[in-house]
From TrEMBL, chain A:
Protein name listed in UniProt: Tripartite tricarboxylate transporter TctA
Organism whose genome encodes this protein: Neogemmobacter tilapiae
Keyword presence, Membrane: yes
Key words, A-Z: Membrane, Transmembrane, Transmembrane helix
One Pfam family linked to the record: TctA
Membrane-spanning residues: 20-49, 61-82, 109-132, 147-167, 174-195, 207-228, 315-334, 354-377, 389-408, 428-446, 467-487
Residue ranges annotated for the DUF112 domain, each copy included: 20-437
TrEMBL record, chain C:
Entry-linked InterPro entries: BUG (IPR005064), Bug_dom1 (IPR042100)
Membership in a protein family: Belongs to the UPF0065 (bug) family.
Pfam families xrefs: TctC (PF03401)
Protein name: C4-dicarboxylate ABC transporter substrate-binding protein
PANTHER family attached to this UniProt entry: TRICARBOXYLATE-BINDING PROTEIN, UPF0065 PROTEIN YFLP
Superkingdom of source: Bacteria
Record flagged with keyword Methyltransferase: no
Species of origin: Neogemmobacter tilapiae
First and last residue of the signal peptide: 1-20
Alphabetized UniProt keyword annotations: Signal
Entries under CDD domains matching the protein: PBP2_Bug_TTT (cd07012)
Length: 504, 162, 314
């Protein structure tokens, strides 16, 4: 079995002590930065990507994988401890996890998140390793019209989870779409909305927008609150999981994994959708549904496994189609390009060694993460006991560091401030900020695929539904649009509404 | 907290401001689209068409926001402390202005110090001082060890050399 | 501790030898691209060969290199230690973006490397030769969709030049721009488009594997080991090379320019540089002095003309 051999070869490379050291450094850096509130995995990878420059490819790749997993895990820590999810996929973790922390059970909450992430990461990475090559074969048959249909599906699934206010969710999305119009039009080279500013030619940087909306906007919002929120919660009782916790967690981890991976692997899925669905499933299947909302461990175990599995799942379209479906994936794409790896249908053919090296790196980093973090849960908690004024001062310094390091122009920093203020304003009036980033990422893709499809068909719109795949995808998108409406009217949308209601 | 929807009948001025902002954005898109080449080539969809569609969407949302404002359907924000926001904003502004000629450490110190001050920590000389040391350390690690190119000012050149 | 650092910094400052000079090279692109690779290769070889004791690379990405170029022209004037990497793509970007700063605002030193462009069709296509393809385009330009890199780039320009030389209206070409070589490659392999254009390196593996048919190359003479005619041989007067160059700051003296040119010549002659080119698969197309200046002017004029013909520059 060729892929198995390649994986073993990758693993043997990764077991070199120096490589393991890089993995350790990556996981540590990733966790330390990812643990900071408002800095999710996307940002963590963006901030720390430069760290991997200048290493040899193998070391760079594994450190990158470590940072990625570290950042993923670090984000859930803040959700549990501070009720400040680093990103949309950790929102549900905050609901039950923070309740557990308030009851002094932060230790088990963090542990089930860590082990759940590990289990999900392991299974999903193996699924990626052995299923992705099959997806590649399918991928080559997809053209602009199918990709356009996928984008439509992505828009619909994401906007269906905007929760109680469709108006505010859609407004956020359209602000993102409007920002996406800035820059050179990919198909004709025409400059749009650049007003003669050369820095705007390449459009608005996703990372700049995400840093500004999440980290800076959050800092404003926290600083402006008149009554300070409760900070850290004291740990009462045991820090590790009791037998009861294990018994209640393991099924949730498995379920979360198998909900997360396919949804993540669907180019229109995403870790946040997966975590919502996992939360809803766990609530439905729980022995004690009455505990939900008051610190049910299943509500942490399931979604955490789901978002990790989905994150591995998003690597399927990313690696095989070159399609970044989340902000994290978009930043990982930039990371891959650093290694000369051009994600796309031919990746497994042209860059086989690098790909299997990456997959082996992900496995190693995943193990390293759980090894490092379980004993250190107590320490991560102490990191967050840094007084708020130093904590947020540091967060802002790091947030701007990313932009300054990549592109230190006053225009870029100016945009950072502008969008930071916008993020604050949006928080004030309950507008979710995530859809803005989604719009910025998906908007240009949808537009370019549509116009490419139409150019190839010489303006014949029926081309959009002329293949079974595109027709099916568009039908599914239509169903996604209609079903939640029906669910909401029959009252089953309550969970989604509650979840997305205080989405950040 | 935020999910709390106050059902008051008083019109919300914030909603009208937001609606105006959305309409302004739509207008900018439409004006730019009008200046683009209208010929969509073989696709039939040119560079101005998608922005135009986004603009129409924004106009509809703007209208709905006005309606929501009359019905009081927007969540009322909690009372905000303006002081801290201004401190942080000033910190960000100073960093922007100082970055290129004073270097990363001094600019970063301003951002760090003013943000900490905004969160109620004083005195300013202390927070800026701590910020300076932190920023200098970050510069040392990221620029020196990790080859990230951060703007250097006199201080960085003095401490870390050329 | 600080005093130690300070002392060390001063010692370093005093110890720098005055003969070989340091360079700072701007790559007007994000890390990872061709210009970045060129800049970093120069850095590596210059340091390894002792041409310059210390070389730093800075990235200023954006708008086909014009953001970096504008910053370079403004900030580096008269500074003989500053270099910028650029290329053919920049020539097109300056024109299409209406950039206020052009290559006249810097001091071009030498052309270093170049890529030949290639035209391919999917292996399953019924088009066998470049003449078949051109005939199809002549009959119905819209029916021939071309996948290639960004609008106004070298790939787009090549299609425009080919159309023009074949007597087809260049504004009528159905060019489908993709953001990267990989994406365009997938479209060609998946039979989504009629033909594809990119630098030959992007396609060579596929052509070897038999999944694509190479119809023609854009070089002046036949390439060694490549079984395809040049466009010239096929009867179209089109030659295009996607070159990369290095330029110095504006406003430097003739002596300073001569010193830089000498350093670059040393670089080009070094064994390290030629090994580097071989590993990266770049061909050495070194051209300096008046010959380069003349070539550059001819390229700018030709590019301006074809971009006007395609309708990207008014």
């Amino acid at each position: 079995m060729e892929s198995f051999n390649l994986l073993m070869q990758g693993l043997s490379v990764a077991l070199d002590p120096m490589i393991l050291l890089y993995a350790l450094i990556g996981v540590t850096l990733g966790t330390v930065v990812g643990v900071l509130p408002g800095i999710g995995p996307a940002l963590t990878v963006a901030l720390l990507l430069p760290v991997t420059y200048g290493l040899d490819p193998a070391g760079s790749l594994i450190m990158f994988a470590g940072i990625y997993y570290g950042g993923m895990y670090g984000g859930s820590t803040t959700s549990i401890l501070l009720n400040t999810p680093g990103e949309s996929a950790s929102i549900v973790t905050a609901i039950e996890g923070n309740q557990m922390a308030r009851k002094g059970r932060a230790g088990p909450a963090l542990a089930t998140a860590a082990i759940g992430s590990f289990v999900a990461g392991l299974v999903a990475t193996l699924l990626l390793a052995f299923l992705a090559p099959q997806v590649v074969k399918l991928a080559l048959t997809l053209g602009p019209r199918e990709y356009f249909a996928l984008m439509v599906l992505a828009f619909v699934t994401v906007s269906a989870t905007f929760g109680d206010s469709a108006l505010r969710g859609l407004t956020s999305l359209f602000i993102g779409l409007a920002l996406a119009c800035v820059g050179i039009d990919g198909l004709t080279g025409a400059a749009r909305l650049t007003y003669g500013v050369p820095q705007l030619m390449d459009g608005i940087e996703t990372t700049t927008l995400a840093v500004a909306l999440f980290a800076i906007g959050e800092a404003f919002a926290v600083a402006a609150v008149v009554a300070p929120p409760d900070g850290m919660h004291q740990i009462k009782g045991r820090v590790t999981m009791a037998a009861e916790d294990w018994r209640r967690s393991w099924k949730s981890w498995i379920r979360g994994t198998f909900i997360g991976f396919p949804i993540g692997a669907m180019p229109a899925g995403g870790a946040d959708v997966a975590s919502f669905l996992s939360y809803a499933t766990e609530k439905k299947l729980a022995e004690k549904p009455e505990e939900f909302g008051h610190g049910a461990i299943e509500g942490v175990a399931g979604p955490e496994a789901a978002n990790n599995a989905a994150a591995a799942g998003t690597l399927v379209p990313l690696l095989t189609l070159g399609l970044p479906t989340t902000a994290t994936a978009a930043i990982m794409l930039a990371g891959f390009q650093q290694f000369g790896l051009q994600p796309g249908p031919l990746l497994f053919v042209t860059n086989a060694e690098l790909v299997w090296g990456l997959i082996a790196s992900l496995l190693i980093a995943n193990v390293m993460l759980v090894v490092l973090n379980l004993p250190l849960i107590g320490l991560w908690i102490r990191l967050l006991s840094i007084p708020r004024h130093w904590l947020y001062a540091g967060i802002l310094l790091f947030a701007t560091l990313g932009t300054i390091g990549v592109n230190p122009s006053p225009v870029e920093l100016g945009m950072l401030i502008l969008f930071g203020v916008m993020g604050y304003g949006m928080r004030l009036y309950g507008y979710p900020v995530a859809p803005v980033v989604v719009g910025l990422i998906l908007g240009p893709m949808a537009e370019q695929q549509l116009r490419r499809a139409l150019a190839i068909a010489q303006g014949d719109w029926s081309t959009l539904v002329s293949t079974p795949v595109s027709a099916i995808l568009l039908t599914v998108a239509a169903l996604f649009l209609i079903v939640p409406l029906i669910l909401r009217y029959t009252g089953r949308g309550a969970v989604l509404a509650q979840v997305a209601g205080d989405e950040d | 907290m935020r999910g709390l929807e106050s059902r008051q009948r008083r019109p919300q001025w914030a909603a009208f401001v937001i609606a105006a902002g959305l309409a302004a954005m739509a207008l900018a898109l439409l004006m730019d689209a009008a200046g683009q080449k209208q010929d969509g080539g073989y696709a039939g969809v040119g560079p101005g068409d998608v922005p135009r569609m986004v603009a129409y969407g924004l106009l509809v949302l703007s209208g709905l926001t006005v309606v929501a404002g009359f019905r009081g359907a927007l969540p009322e924000p909690e009372v905000q402390n303006k002081g801290p926001v201004l401190w942080i904003l000033t910190g960000l502004g100073l960093q922007l202005v100082l970055l290129h000629w004073a270097g990363f450490a001094i600019a970063g110190a301003m951002l760090f110090g003013l943000t900490a001050r905004g969160f109620g920590k004083g005195p300013l000389w202390l927070t800026v001082g701590v910020g300076f040391l932190v920023a200098l350390g970050i510069h040392g690690v990221f620029d020196g060890l990790l080859n990230l190119n951060l703007p250097a000012g006199p201080v960085e050149r003095l401490v870390f050399g050329g | 501790m600080k005093h130690v650092l300070l002392g060390a910094a001063m010692a370093v400052a005093l110890a720098v030898p005055a003969y070989a000079q340091d360079y700072t090279i701007m790559a007007p692109a994000a890390p990872g691209g061709g210009w970045d690779g060129t800049a970093r290769s120069i850095q590596e070889v210059m340091q390894a060969e002792g041409i310059a004791p210390s070389v730093e690379v800075i990235n200023v990405p954006g708008a086909g290199g014009t953001v970096g170029l504008a910053q370079f022209a403004a900030d580096s004037a008269g500074d003989p230690t500053k270099l910028i990497v650029g290329g053919y793509v920049m020539v097109g970007a300056i024109l299409t973006n209406g950039s206020p700063v052009s290559l006249k605002d810097v001091t071009p030193i030498a052309r270093l490397t170049g890529d030949t462009e290639a035209i391919v069709v999917p292996a399953s296509s019924d088009i066998m030769t470049i003449n078949d393809l051109v005939e199809k385009m002549k009959a119905d330009p819209g029916s021939v969709s071309w996948a290639g890199g960004s609008a106004g780039g070298a790939d787009h320009i090549l299609v425009g030049l080919l159309a023009k030389s074949a007597g087809v209206d260049p504004t009528k070409i159905n060019y489908v721009a993709y953001s990267g070589g990989g994406e365009a490659l997938a479209a060609i392999l998946g039979n989504q488009v009629t033909a594809g254009v990119s630098s030959i390196g992007e396609f060579s593996e596929q052509v070897k594997a038999g999944t694509m048919r190479l119809l023609a190359v854009s070089s002046d003479a036949r390439l060694e080991g490549v079984d395809a005619p040049t466009l010239k041989e096929a009867g179209y007067d089109v030659v295009l090379q996607n070159w990369r160059m290095v330029a110095a700051a504006p406003g430097i003296t003739d002596e300073q320019k001569a010193k830089i040119a000498a350093d670059i010549e040393k670089l080009n002659a070094s064994a390290g540089w030629n090994t580097m080119l071989a590993t990266k698969g770049w061909s050495n197309t070194y051209l300096a002095g008046d010959a380069f200046t003349a070539q550059l002017e001819a390229d700018i004029a030709a590019t301006d003309a074809i971009l006007r013909d395609i309708g990207l520059v008014k």
